[in-house]
């Protein structure tokens, strides 16, 4: 018995030593694997990946793929391409660029759906269903095991809307060169617009502010603030968190609202109450199309 | 009890390698990177959409996807020890990547895992820095003129294409490497990897459009070895 024990130990050492030596030589440690069991926490709901799996293979996999890599059966007909959960790069986050989103961010994306894309709103599912789905899509990437979601971007209370705020926002729009892609009038037709590609090398259009107030990552002023501060990962839209001060950011939000002249916002109303603003808005309106935006909706 | 000698051996190995690395002398691998065939003709970059950059050049600069020199030498090739040497701790100095004249300087920046990466905008226009990693995490940041440098790190080795979405001609590469034994070929295509302790190494040369090549080299003592890499040029 003793001999066998000794033998076992020796074998163990013999097996371990080469591993130690390999580590010495700088060979790569085995990469972390995705966990098959994940949970999500949204408010007081807890989602479970086991339950989410059933739902995923009923509602999601035809586009997002059985492997979660965005290569489902329908994917070739879908643009922008379905999200690749293996890469775990997400557009709509409350967390800084390059970090994982919060569970609530993913949950809200599933509720909201993505405007101008093939991703519908899944508001018809129960909240528990959606929480389970969020847990399940976290089983596709090891990033959910090795990393933690980033700290959410803090959004200060919105200051009072003033004309100065809108005008200063307009100056920032010029200074930060938003117009290079989004265009001087916010139509998504800036000088660089036609060259843009997303991280899958697929052509992608900058947001056209004149068509809608419903951007992909939400419709409120807070959402607008969050979008340019976090950036839209996987697309050309960068994060401005390090370069815009919070009070300036609100000015930019107010200005962006005045570009959406089909959306009766308080910002647009105030802007149109001045002669200057009224003339600018009137000059922008293209009368020939149904929405007045010049771009078919 | 049987484990103890193994652990001690492990420490001894570690100590030995540390001593070997700390030694001032070591072997050297030098060489040259060339190409055969006809490389694609680089076109001048049209910067007319960015006048603040266009005015910095009397003749338009050429694209840098393939940069060649005299006698078929190939620039912007990173030559590094890909196997046979332990991973190094990152140096305390930062690797600097500068945006100037709407181009990346250097076009290919090699640095180590967890080494500080400092990105500077020297232009009078806004850039966005958008590295496109597959293994590391992807981020995308705006850098208007006059803003402080962006400081980042990468924690896994990878060759990462970098682009600026605002200026579509701006392309570059981050070569994130595991150890400090690397060189990037410049004018003349030559490289030198110094201070290699005796041992057997795999040396790899990587070019952004011609791919990579590897060669095994055995170094004994402080000898100097010469190797050459010849890439097959793609005409497109």
Keywords:
heterodimer; A: 297 residues; mainly alpha; Cytochrome Bc1 Complex, Chain D, domain 2; globular; B: 236 residues; mainly beta; Immunoglobulin-like; four-stranded antiparallel β-sheet; 16 strands; 10% helix
Written account of the structure:
The complex is a heterodimer of chains A (297) and B (236). Chain A contains eleven helices and two strands. Chain A is mostly helical. A two-stranded antiparallel sheet of chain A has the order 1-2. Chain B has 236 residues and is mostly beta strands. Chain B has a single domain, classed as Sandwich (Immunoglobulin-like). Chain B is built from two helices and 16 strands. In chain B, a hairpin with a 2-residue loop joins strand 3 and strand 4. Chain B starts with a helix and ends with a strand. The N terminus of chain B is likely disordered. Chains A and B meet through helix 1 of A and helix 1, strand 7 and strand 8 of B.
Give a brief outline of the structure:
The complex is a heterodimer of chains A (297) and B (236). With 297 residues, chain A is mainly alpha-helical.
């Amino acid at each position: 018995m003793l001999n066998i024990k000794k033998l076992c130990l020796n074998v163990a050492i013999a097996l371990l030593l080469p591993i130690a030596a390999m580590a010495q030589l700088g060979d790569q440690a085995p990469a972390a694997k995705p966990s098959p069991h994940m949970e999500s926490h949204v408010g007081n709901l807890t989602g479970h990946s086991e339950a989410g799996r059933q739902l995923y293979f009923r509602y999601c996999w035809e586009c997002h793929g059985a492997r979660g890599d965005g290569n489902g059966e329908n994917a070739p007909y879908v643009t922008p391409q379905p999200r690749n959960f293996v890469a775990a790069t997400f557009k709509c986050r409350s967390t800084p660029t390059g970090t994982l989103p919060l569970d609530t961010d993913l949950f809200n994306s599933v509720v909201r759906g993505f405007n101008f894309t093939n991703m519908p709103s899944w508001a018809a599912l129960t909240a528990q269903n959606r929480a389970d789905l969020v847990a399940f899509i976290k089983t596709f990437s090891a990033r959910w095991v090795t990393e933690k979601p980033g700290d959410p971007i803090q959004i200060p209370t919105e200051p009072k809307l003033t004309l100065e705020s809108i005008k200063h926002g307009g100056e920032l729009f010029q200074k930060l060169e938003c117009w290079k892609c989004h265009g001087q009038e916010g139509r998504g037709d800036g000088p660089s617009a036609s060259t843009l590609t997303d991280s899958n090398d697929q052509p992608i259009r900058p947001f056209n502010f004149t068509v809608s107030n419903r951007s992909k990552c939400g419709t409120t002023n807070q959402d607008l603030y969050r979008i340019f501060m976090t950036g839209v990962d996987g697309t050309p839209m960068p994060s401005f968190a390090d370069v815009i001060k919070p009070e300036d950011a609100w000015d930019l939000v107010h200005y962006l609202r005045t570009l959406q002249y089909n959306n009766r916002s308080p910002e647009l109303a105030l802007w149109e109450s001045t002669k200057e603003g009224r003339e600018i808005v009137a000059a922008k309106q293209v009368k020939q199309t149904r929405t007045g935006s010049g771009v078919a909706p | 009890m049987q484990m103890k000698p193994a652990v001690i051996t492990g420490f001894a190995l570690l100590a030995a390698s540390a001593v070997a690395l700390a030694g001032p002398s070591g072997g050297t691998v030098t060489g040259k990177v060339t190409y055969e065939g006809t490389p694609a003709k680089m076109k001048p970059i049209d910067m007319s959409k960015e006048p603040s950059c266009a005015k910095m050049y009397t003749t338009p600069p050429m694209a840098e996807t393939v940069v060649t020199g005299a006698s078929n030498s190939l620039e912007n090739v990173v030559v590094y020890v890909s196997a046979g040497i332990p991973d190094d701790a990152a140096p305390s100095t930062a690797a600097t990547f500068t945006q100037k004249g709407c181009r990346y300087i250097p076009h290919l920046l090699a640095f180590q895992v967890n080494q500080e990466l400092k990105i500077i905008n020297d232009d009078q226009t806004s850039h966005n820095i958008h590295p496109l990693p597959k293994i590391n995490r992807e981020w995308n940041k705006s850098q208007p003129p006059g803003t402080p440098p962006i400081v980042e790190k990468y924690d896994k080795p990878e060759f990462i294409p970098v682009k600026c979405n605002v200026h579509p001609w701006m392309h570059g590469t981050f070569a994130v490497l595991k150890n400090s034994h690397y060189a990037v070929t410049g004018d003349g295509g030559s490289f030198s990897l110094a201070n290699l302790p005796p041992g057997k190494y795999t040396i790899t040369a990587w070019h952004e459009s011609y791919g990579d090549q590897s060669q095994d080299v055995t170094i004994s003592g402080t000898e100097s070895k010469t190797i050459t890499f010849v890439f097959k040029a793609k005409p497109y």
